[in-house]
Specification:
Blueprint: H1 2-32, E1 34-38, E2 41-44, H2 45-55, H3 64-86, H4 93-113, H5 116-146, H6 148-157, H7 166-192, E3 195-197, H8 199-204
Antiparallel strand pairs: 1-2, 1-3
Helix pairs in contact: 3-5, 4-5, 5-7, 6-7
């Protein structure tokens, strides 16, 4: 009985080790297809390259640094979308109606592009783009336009950068203040949603 128990235990251990090894290979393979993870959520290489080529007239990247720069911008976009969802902006009736209207228009377009994947990417891009716009409006643009005291305080702290009265450089000051708000916002988002870039996968995407 003892020998039988030992054999069963050894068989179990071997199977467990094999399963763990196989699962590890699957996870490694899955990660290899992702160019980054944002708060443990994968960003697929296919989606990223679709977005990259769409913004570069269909051209692929021939330089790693160029691709990395765009990836960081795309990650910032995704972080803002995550924040918008956390705030519940995707649940608003106005947002839902806008997306529904776009979906209807895209169904007609789908017959032209004849591609389910293209359709999915376009729809997701629009959904996230609207969320990014809405959350940016609340977190940055409205604050910079409406908070007169904050603008005045920012100007006084950085007056040496302008050398002109606020009335003459107001537009420039607001733009700089908006950038400060965005930088602070993104820094807080990166603390909240950890980002990990898969550099090996990113290098594989050059000229693809």
């Amino acid at each position: 009985m003892l020998l039988l128990s030992i054999k069963i235990y050894r068989t179990f251990c071997v199977r467990k080790a094999y399963c763990l090894f196989f699962f590890g290979l699957l996870c490694s393979s899955a990660f290899a297809q992702n160019v980054a993870t944002i708060s443990s959520k994968p960003l697929s290489s296919k989606e990223f390259m679709w977005a990259y080529k769409k913004s570069h007239n269909g051209n692929s990247a021939s330089d790693y640094n160029e691709l990395l720069t765009y990836l960081n911008l795309y990650i910032n976009f995704k972080l803002k979308v995550l924040d918008a969802r956390e705030m519940g902006l995707d649940k608003s009736d106005t947002y839902q109606e806008e997306i529904k209207t776009y979906e209807g228009a895209l169904e007609v377009h789908k017959k032209v592009i004849n591609s389910n994947k293209e359709h999915d990417y376009l729809l997701n891009e629009y959904r996230e783009g609207v969320l990014m716009f809405n959350v940016s409006e609340q977190k940055i643009w409205n604050k910079a336009q409406e908070d007169e005291q904050a603008i005045d305080d920012y100007y006084k702290k950085n007056k040496q950068n302008y050398n002109k009265p606020l009335s003459e450089v107001r537009g420039e000051v607001i733009a700089d203040y908006q950038q400060k708000l965005e930088d602070n916002w993104l820094n807080s988002l990166k603390e909240k949603y950890p980002v990990k870039i898969n550099e090996n996968e990113l290098r594989k995407l050059i000229k693809l």
